[in-house]
Specification:
Oligomer: single chain
Strand order of the largest sheet: 1-16-17-15-14-11-12-13
Number of helices: 10
CATH class of the largest domain: Alpha Beta
CATH superfamily of the largest domain: Vaccinia Virus protein VP39
Structural class: alpha/beta
Radius of gyration: 22 Å
Bound molecules: S-adenosyl-L-homocysteine
Number of domains: 2
Distance between the termini: 45 Å
Number of strands: 17
Strand content: 25-35%
Length: 391
């Protein structure tokens, strides 16, 4: 393969790709990216079961529905917005990104120029002075609803009303604007305090026929097109008949649980983050799904409690963070012995480790593995694996 890394910045299709680090393969043809991911997943997982061809995107650009920009003041340039240079706090000005939603990028540019005309000072990380720190834009792929989160260093926002009305005049597609106050010297983007200054304070999106409420802080997959494909694959792997008791572990705002609920007897979701559980409960209500219960708990502990109570569970979905699952979780799973397990993973290394653990006791075998390209132009891979219990 050609060494695209060595390609001159001038010849790159993105002028900041060397400094940003957000996408490692911006100049690699898409087909080649998919082949590379297929080889990586195959190398790690083919010993467990059949690895199907990776599902790529027809149009792999501008897929990110969540866009973040950091604001800064630079001598000679004035107010800039962009990204942190990889592993530093230097801000690289960016006008647009090939992976991000184009409307979101335009909104960020408008905020940059409004900040100039309103003479809003950007926040200085060294001194703690100034107001505007970050802007976060989230777009509902199917609904077109747009949320703008203005992260400010102080709750006092002079000329707030005029700013909002000018921004909405430029972008009538914005449905809500939230101020998030972060006055700590931290690299975390969002602070604790929130104030809705326009609209409802959240957006909705539609996935697999269900409506999902998304709050500023809830986890939501960044690529809606591929998420739908991933969840359909996961539910297909579960082979539900309408009678099963299903667990959705690490369930976030309940996306997989609610997608599967129509084809199951009942679904139990478990998630650690309180805001996400609250969204999940609201999402069940909005979609009038009655056979789902959500619990706020550590997934491993919750599974152990189910095992100790000798609950009957037929199918378990698990979608853990990059670090993978835990032995506590998997021991409980081996004790509960559901007929099928569907493991969704954003890290094939920890998936390989966990599949090794689950299959080592000869209770389960891996039927099939499908990689889904959720993150074109980056090295990240999403994988869905179907396991079934041995008789
Ligand atoms: N299935 C969801 C979320 C997947 S992301 C979706 O596709 O949208 C992983 C989720 O695991 C996050 O929501 C995170 O808050 C949650 N999580 C992390 N550690 C956890 C733990 N120990 N127990 C339960 N949930 C956990």
């Amino acid at each position: 393969m050609k060494d695209y890394k060595k390609q001159n910045q001038k010849n790159s299709r993105c002028e900041v790709s060397r400094k940003c680090g957000g996408c490692q393969n911006i100049d690699v043809p898409y087909k080649e990216q998919l082949a590379k991911k297929q080889r990586r997943v195959g190398g790690l997982l083919k010993g467990f079961g059949k690895v199907r061809p990776i599902i790529g995107m027809d149009q792999p650009l501008h897929y990110r529905n969540k866009v973040h920009a950091v604001f800064d003041f630079q001598k000679g340039r004035g107010i800039v917005s962009g990204i942190y240079q990889e592993r530093t706090h230097n801000v690289i000005p960016v006008d647009g990104c090939l992976l991000e939603d184009e409307k979101a990028d335009q909104i960020i540019l408008s905020i940059r120029s409004l900040a100039k005309s309103f003479k809003i000072k950007t926040y200085d990380e060294d001194t703690g002075y100034g107001l505007l720190r970050h802007v976060l834009v989230r777009v509902g792929h199917a609904t077109g609803q747009i949320m703008v989160v203005l992260v400010l260093g102080s709750p006092i926002f002079p000329s707030k009303k005029n700013f909002v009305s000018e921004l909405c005049k430029l972008h009538p597609e914005i449905t809500t604007i939230v101020v998030n106050v972060n006055n700590r010297r931290t690299s975390m983007v969002l602070g604790d305090k929130e104030q809705v200054i326009y609209g409802k304070g959240y957006i909705e999106d539609i996935l697999c026929g269900r409506t999902f409420k998304i709050s500023p802080k809830s986890f939501y997959q960044v690529n809606a097109v591929q998420t739908e494909i991933l969840y359909q694959k996961a539910v297909e792997y579960a082979r539900l008949t309408g009678k099963e008791t299903v667990v959705d572990a690490y369930c976030g705002i309940g996306t997989i649980a609610l997608t599967a609920a129509g084809q199951a007897g009942k679904v139990i979701g478990v998630e650690l983050n309180r805001d996400a559980v609250r969204d999940a409960v609201a999402n069940a209500r909005v979609n009038q799904v009655k056979n789902v219960d959500f619990y706020q708990n550590d997934a491993g502990r919750f599974m152990r409690q189910l095992a100790e109570a000798q609950e009957k569970v037929d199918v378990v979905f698990l979608d853990p963070p990059r670090s993978g699952s835990t032995e506590e979780f998997m021991d409980a799973l081996l004790c509960l012995r559901p007929a099928r397990v569907v493991y969704i993973s954003c890290n094939p290394e920890t998936l390989a480790r966990d599949l090794g653990y689950l299959t080592s006791k000869k209770q389960y075998r891996v039927e099939e593995i499908t990689p889904v390209d959720m993150f074109p132009f980056t090295d990240n891979i999403e994988v869905c694996a179907a396991l079934s219990g041995r008789k």
